């Protein structure tokens, strides 16, 4: 059902393009992995392809992933590219993830 809703929302957003502020206020799931090679953490927003970063502390990684999210959205918006809406997932199953939350 979510696929059908997403399809219609994507069609509507092409007709009525939401503001940049709208997209920047969406909350996306963040997956956090320990960085075994260099220490610290790697964070990723799977809904935004290529949106990932790293940091030494939890505070730093959350700041970095939020900046990466904003930059990803701003770049896509200015280029006229599609900006995916956050996934609706009841259960996220990633055995390598240490933390899954939102920004």
TrEMBL record:
Domain of life: Bacteria
Pfam families on file: HicB_lk_antitox
Domain HicB-like antitoxin of toxin-antitoxin system: from-to ranges: 28-90
SUPFAM superfamilies in the cross-refs: TTHA1013/TTHA0281-like (SSF143100)
PANTHER family: ANTITOXIN HICB (PTHR34504), UPF0150 PROTEIN SSL0259 (PTHR34504:SF2)
Protein name, UniProt field: HicB-like antitoxin of toxin-antitoxin system domain-containing protein
